[in-house]
């Protein structure tokens, strides 16, 4: 009898990291569908380019760190980072934009910190912030929501790959690009228009919020709810985030409705739902305990609102999440749960100087 | 009556797989050929065998016992002959070898005479407890704690008695079948325990996947106050602390016992054993074990004798050896693998799983922790397993302790849900073990540090006391000297002369020290064979220091022998001049003692450097000795005289040592004693000289010394 | 002589101010946006370092230990002011571009560090060499970083070199790509941190490789190495 010697437990659940990541990818599909339907093929192509570059960079980094490559690639985390970054980029961005962004995200944002599980900042958001600061022009060249038929697949591909070489293509892209609802709101508020006036603009002619953008956000909302149902993400973070964002927007809209957007507008514009369900809930960079998650999500929501209303950038999800990622160790320090048999929760890390 | 059930946080729902072993009713396992009965199945003091090899024992006969209360006695599970009493590996994760008694069964299964009690309620608690102890009953839920101790609680201390019928681990159905088929006996056993403990309420907690057991127990307990409480099926709601929380809402304080919240928990199997012990008089020699796993064909529950080899039970269950991949003793969540089937089962082996490869595949490789937090979601103790994992891996044990690693019950739920397949429980076991080892080391270090400090304190104390005594003596001497001199210039001059004396003393001491050091340096240099210039230098130094030292000593001697400061005519009346004389004698004795020491030292030096005038120096030594001895004798006489003769007040002070009046008898005695001493010493020296074969001349000298001493003593 | 070669090696590589001691980061991050700025500040820093090392070494016997730091800072401040005036006179546009970072050379920790750590304890010639070499080492890193940031941040190299080298250097500028969008991130201070990190990493890689080679040379694995026996016959 060749019996093996193993330690308890001898049975294991069905959870698997690779499977979890695949589920997350699955959940992005509704949002991706909405993006494609309203803004063309660009986002899909961006995601593909980013995914390929991500796998390449991850293999390179793993080889440099002398780790088994296939084993680590199989946890699918690089692809998820790439897709999330690709979803955040403008549809017609030149090909080198997702390339540089993904390379930065994987190599600097993930592997320089020690690989999966050891990074402090969300790699996709780090890549996005890097791109936003480095190439402000290209990163703000969004398309108007004219539907998928505004450009064929081949045309889109050509534009993306020729974007920086051919002046004609550059002119086409320049001609096509328009601002997002958030962008418009910020610029026009700066031009002393009031919010009700701004809402008359064509870009806002969706039935709830910005045209096209509302469906994108609803798509991500559906995907996020699926993840909550499957138990892959914790519901406290998105709920806290959305609740805080809506509450502050509501309060300030009540205070001065000429200068502040409505809660529905904030919830369904820009990257709110993507950030709430897919990026803020990234387990590696989020807080650990239940109370910690509430605090984390709430402060992200607050920061999003503050930067959108008073800050220099139109969309704030990336920066808000990066800022709160910084705060996660402190949140963990103070929010340990109370264990069975103890009267109250401990806090701190229990170093020698007790 | 519906009893309230509290919610237990966390927990998992692994596939139960209990139906695998519930298709057949309870059967008795066949008698094995040999029983290997382990003697240490319990937590507590060890027992020692009370039978010998070759002896025939009957079923239920006591084969190992001990007087200690924390021990659990062992009885022969079947009749047969004692084959061997020795070490054998037992069922334990470490495969440790423990003392076991091997019994060759003779197949007759003959019971020893035994009888139960008719009315247990008539017996008092201590009798019942001693019966339980004599029956060797231990906690059969897995811990193995002697039940008689657990039941030994003060009256009015127990509010709730909980019987653990939860059996939350997958695969195990031993308690289930026991509850289904022996419900009446179990209720009787519970009543016995209730009589011992007198709790306010008795609850039986059963998971709601055991409906047949619930029904059977409800029927059996219909007339009693025992509550059957159904609890939601969740792993690990059968853990002692978790069950207490579910049934009473109370939490056992960390590091504490359920007794602190007024609860006692017993396993169903233990209860059944107590029934058999009290009502039927049978000791604990068998238990229900679930034989399950997909590599077995005749899965089910068997009543197995303690000490049955696992191999026999596997055969009983119809195991297919080609399929067998893993044998687990216990449940799949907290049990451990057996590397071989030749181990005996003990009183706490509740399940044997014969698993195939597909059923319990080898663990997949560990991936990185993605901090998903699922482990923290299901932890029944509300710990933060991923933090504990990080700290254990990085060996930051103080942080792990601060995160309550010692509250972990090692249920394995966190490892079960981890998507990265990290063996979390192993990390915690490693951390706990290492922390305990470090604690032991720290305690040892602390104890030795304490011993060291105590010793230092003691030495310091002694030094202080010595110093105090010396000061007191000096003070007394100074006072006496001051008393002798008058009030006028004498206090000052007495003080002066004292100061002078002190100064001379220190001068003498320091110069002596310098000279000794110089001599040492010289001898070292000579040993090292330095160049001659250096040696010459050192020698000069030695000579110089020696001269200084001698001068200082002379001055000191002179000062000591100087008459003390002028006594004014109006000297204080009542000053016994004996004191003065005695003081002088003391000083003389001190100086002669010094001289003796010097002479001895010179002798030693001469001996080691093999000079020629050894004998002359020896003569010097002897003379000095005589002088010192004589002075000592006089001093002693003077002291004795002082005590016996009344004080004389008028005679002027006279600095002499010879005219000290003495009472003849006493002085004679003293002289005689001193002389005898001298003779003894001389005799010793003579013997030594003879042994060392010294020169004739020397021996003659010594003989003469003896004669002298002898004549003196007459 | 070996002392001098050690000083040179330390200054340029082993104890390089920017990559090993990691001092003087403030000017390093702020002025390495282009090569010409880097050269300008590097030269200024080297000049001050050279001068301060010399002076401190000359006066080292007479300075009381308790007040040596204020004294050294005064020396450095005087020299910095001189350098500032020179730059104001001869390279006015560069002076304006560098702005406040020229006076801030006083606070550059490497200058005070070398004064207190080396010039105070060593005679004049070694101190001069040390100052020169440390300054050169710093300047080299500045130039590398400047080149990196200029190339990737603006797409040019050696632009505006005439600010230092006069009108002959006007056409030294190289354009890497046309229509290069320029990675703005690298033109900002975070990019400088990033670039410095990369340079330090490359230096560490080179160091490790050199150590490996040294180890290989020190104990080569011989194919036919003899084992010496202590007892018995040695054949």
Brief characterization of the structure:
Chain A has 354 residues and is mainly alpha-helical. Chain A is 62% helix and 0% strand. Chain A has a single domain (17-334), classed as Ammonium transporter fold (Orthogonal Bundle), CATH 1.10.3430.
Instruction: Give the class of chain C from helix and strand content and strand pairing.
Output: mainly alpha
Helix content of chain C: 55-70%
User: What's the structural domain tally of chain C?
Assistant: 1
β-sheet strand percentage of chain A: under 5%
Mean of residue pLDDT values of chain C: 86
Please explain how this structure is put together:
The complex is a heterotrimer of chains A (354), B (714) and C (235). Chain A has helices at residues 17-27, 29-39, 42-64, 69-73, 77-88, 96-111, 123-134, 136-139, 153-162, 167-176, 181-190, 195-198, 213-230, 236-255, 263-267, 272-279, 290-310, 317-334. Chain A is mainly α. The longest helix of chain A is centred in the N-terminal third of the chain and has 23 residues, at 42-64. Chain B is 48% helix and 12% strand. In chain B, helix 10 crosses helix 13 (424-484) and helix 18 packs antiparallel against helix 19 (696-712). With 235 residues, chain C is mostly helical. Chain C has one domain. In chain C, 66% of the residues lie in helices and 2% in strands. Chain C is built from ten helices and two strands, in the order αααααααβαβαα.
């Amino acid at each position: 009898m060749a019996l093996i010697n193993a330690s308890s437990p001898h049975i294991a659940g069905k959870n698997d990291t690779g499977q979890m990541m695949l589920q997350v990818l699955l959940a992005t599909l509704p949002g991706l569908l909405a993006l494609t339907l309203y803004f063309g093929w660009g986002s899909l192509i961006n995601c593909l380019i980013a995914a390929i570059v991500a796998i390449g960079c991850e293999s390179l980094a793993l080889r440099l760190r002398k780790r088994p490559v296939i084993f680590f690639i199989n946890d699918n985390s690089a692809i998820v980072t790439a897709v999330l970054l690709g979803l955040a980029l403008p549809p017609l961005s030149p090909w080198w934009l997702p390339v540089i962004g993904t390379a930065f995200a994987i190599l600097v944002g993930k592997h320089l910190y020690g690989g999966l599980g050891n990074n402090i900042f969300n790699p996709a958001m780090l890549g996005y912030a890097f791109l936003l600061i480095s190439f402000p022009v290209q990163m703000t060249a969004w398309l108007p929501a004219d539907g998928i038929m505004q450009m064929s697949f081949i045309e889109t591909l050509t534009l993306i790959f020729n974007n920086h070489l051919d002046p004609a293509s550059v002119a086409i892209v320049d001609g096509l690009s328009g601002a997002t609802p958030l962008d418009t709101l910020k610029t026009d508020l700066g031009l002393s228009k009031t919010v009700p006036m701004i809402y008359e603009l064509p870009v806002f002619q969706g039935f709830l919020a910005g045209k096209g953008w509302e469906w994108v956000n609803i798509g991500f909302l559906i995907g996020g709810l699926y993840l909550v149902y499957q138990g892959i993400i914790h519901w406290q973070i998105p709920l806290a985030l959305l609740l805080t964002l809506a509450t502050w927007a509501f309060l300030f809209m009540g205070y001065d409705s000429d200068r502040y957007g409505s809660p529905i507008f904030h919830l369904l514009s820009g990257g709110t739902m993507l950030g709430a369900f897919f990026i803020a809930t990234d387990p590696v960079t989020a807080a650990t305990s239940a109370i910690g998650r509430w605090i984390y999500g709430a402060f992200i929501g607050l920061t999003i609102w503050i930067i959108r209303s008073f800050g220099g950038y139109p969309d704030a999800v990336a920066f808000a999440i990066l800022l709160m990622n910084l705060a996660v160790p402190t949140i963990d320090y103070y929010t340990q749960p109370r264990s069975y048999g103890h009267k109250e929760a401990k806090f701190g890390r229990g170093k020698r100087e007790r | 009556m519906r009893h309230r059930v509290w919610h237990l946080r966390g927990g998992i729902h692994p596939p139960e797989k209990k139906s695998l072993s519930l298709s057949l009713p309870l059967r008795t396992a066949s008698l094995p050929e040999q029983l290997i009965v382990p003697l240490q199945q319990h937590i507590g003091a060890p027992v020692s065998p009370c039978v010998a090899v070759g002896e025939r024992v009957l079923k239920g006969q006591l084969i190992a016992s001990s007087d200690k209360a924390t021990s659990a006695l062992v009885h022969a599970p079947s009749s047969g002959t004692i084959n061997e009493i020795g070490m054998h590996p037992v069922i334990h994760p470490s495969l440790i070898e423990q003392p076991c008694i091997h019994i060759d069964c003779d197949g007759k299964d003959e019971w020893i005479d035994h009888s139960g009690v008719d009315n247990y309620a008539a017996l008092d608690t201590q009798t019942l407890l001693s019966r339980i102890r004599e029956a060797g009953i231990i906690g059969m839920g897995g811990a193995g704690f002697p039940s008689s101790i657990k039941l030994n609680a003060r009256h009015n201390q127990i509010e709730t008695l909980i019987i653990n019928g939860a059996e939350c681990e997958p695969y195990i159905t031993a308690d289930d079948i026991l509850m289904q088929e022996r419900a009446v006996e179990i209720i009787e056993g519970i009543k016995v325990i209730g009589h011992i403990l007198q709790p306010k309420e008795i609850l039986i907690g059963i998971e709601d996947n055991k409906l047949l057991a619930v029904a059977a127990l409800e029927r059996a307990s219909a007339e009693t106050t025992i509550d059957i409480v159904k609890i939601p099926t969740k792993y690990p709601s059968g853990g002692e602390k978790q069950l207490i929380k579910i049934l009473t809402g109370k939490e056992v304080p960390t590091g504490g016992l359920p007794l602190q919240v007024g609860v006692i928990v017993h396993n169903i199997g233990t209860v059944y054993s107590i029934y058999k012990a009290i009502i039927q008089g049978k000791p604990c020699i068998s238990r229900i074990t679930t034989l399950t796993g997909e590599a077995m064909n005749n899965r089910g529950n068997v009543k197995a004798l303690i000490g049955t080899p696992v191999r026999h039970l596997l055969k009983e269950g119809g195991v297919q050896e080609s399929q067998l991949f893993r044998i687990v003793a216990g449940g799949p969540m907290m049990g451990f693998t057996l590397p071989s089937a030749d181990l005996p089962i003990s009183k706490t082996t509740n399940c044997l799983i014969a698993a195939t490869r597909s059923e319990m595949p080898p663990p997949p490789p560990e991936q990185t922790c993605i901090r998903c937090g699922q482990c923290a979601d299901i932890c029944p103790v509300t710990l933060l397993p991923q933090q504990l994992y990080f700290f254990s891996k990085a060996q930051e044990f103080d942080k792990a302790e601060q995160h309550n690693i010692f509250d972990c019950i090692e249920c394995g739920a966190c490892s079960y849900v981890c998507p990265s397949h990290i063996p979390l429980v192993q990390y915690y076991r490693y951390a706990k073990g290492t922390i305990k080892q470090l604690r032991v080391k720290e305690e040892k270090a602390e104890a030795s540090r304490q011993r060291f400090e105590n010793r230092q304190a003691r030495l310091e104390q002694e030094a202080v006391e010595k110093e105090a005594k010396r000061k007191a003596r000096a003070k007394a001497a100074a006072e006496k000297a001051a008393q002798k001199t008058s009030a006028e210039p004498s206090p000052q001059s007495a003080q002066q002369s004292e100061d002078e004396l002190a100064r001379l003393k220190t001068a003498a001491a320091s110069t002596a020290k310098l000279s000794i050091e110089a001599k040492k340096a010289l001898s070292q240099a000579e040993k090292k064979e330095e160049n001659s210039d250096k040696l010459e230098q050192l020698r000069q130094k030695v000579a110089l220091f020696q001269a200084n030292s001698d001068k200082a000593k002379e001055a000191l001697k002179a000062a000591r022998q100087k008459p003390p400061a002028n006594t004014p005519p109006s000297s204080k009346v009542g000053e016994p001049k004996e004191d003065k004389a005695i003081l002088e004698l003391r000083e003389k004795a001190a100086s002669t003692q010094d001289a003796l020491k010097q002479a001895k030292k010179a002798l030693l030096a001469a001996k080691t450097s093999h000079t020629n005038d050894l004998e002359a120096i020896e003569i010097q030594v002897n003379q000095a000795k005589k002088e010192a001895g004589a002075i000592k004798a006089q001093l002693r006489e003077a002291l004795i005289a002082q005590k016996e003769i009344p004080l004389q007040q008028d005679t002027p002070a006279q600095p002499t040592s010879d005219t000290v009046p003495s009472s003849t008898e006493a002085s004679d005695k003293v002289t005689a004693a001193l002389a005898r001493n001298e003779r003894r010493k001389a005799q010793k020296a003579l013997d030594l000289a003879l042994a060392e074969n010294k020169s004739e001349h020397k021996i003659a000298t010594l003989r003469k010394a003896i004669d002298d001493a002898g004549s003196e003593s007459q | 002589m070996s002392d001098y070669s050690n000083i040179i090696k330390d200054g340029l590589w082993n104890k390089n101010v920017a990559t090993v001691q990691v001092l003087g980061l403030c000017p390093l991050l702020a002025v390495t946006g282009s090569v010409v700025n880097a050269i300008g500040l590097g030269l200024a820093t080297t000049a001050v370092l050279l001068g301060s090392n010399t002076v401190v070494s000359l006066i080292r016997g007479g300075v009381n230990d308790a007040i040596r730091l204020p004294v050294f800072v005064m020396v450095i401040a005087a020299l910095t002011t001189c350098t500032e005036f020179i730059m104001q006179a001869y390279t006015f546009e560069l002076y304006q571009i560098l702005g406040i970072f020229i006076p801030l050379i006083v606070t550059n920790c490497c200058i005070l560090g070398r004064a207190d750590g080396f010039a105070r304890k060593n005679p004049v010639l070694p101190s001069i060499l040390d100052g020169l070499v440390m300054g050169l080492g710093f300047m080299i890193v500045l130039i590398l970083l400047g080149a990196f940031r200029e190339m990737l941040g603006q797409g040019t190299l050696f632009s505006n070199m005439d600010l230092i080298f006069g009108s002959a250097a006007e056409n030294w500028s190289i354009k890497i790509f046309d229509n290069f969008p320029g990675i703005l991130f690298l033109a900002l201070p975070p990019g400088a941190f990033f670039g410095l990190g990369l340079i330090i990493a490359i230096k560490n890689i080179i160091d490790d490789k050199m150590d490996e080679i040294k180890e290989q040379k020190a104990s080569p694995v011989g194919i036919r190495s003899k084992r010496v026996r202590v007892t018995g016959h040695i054949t």
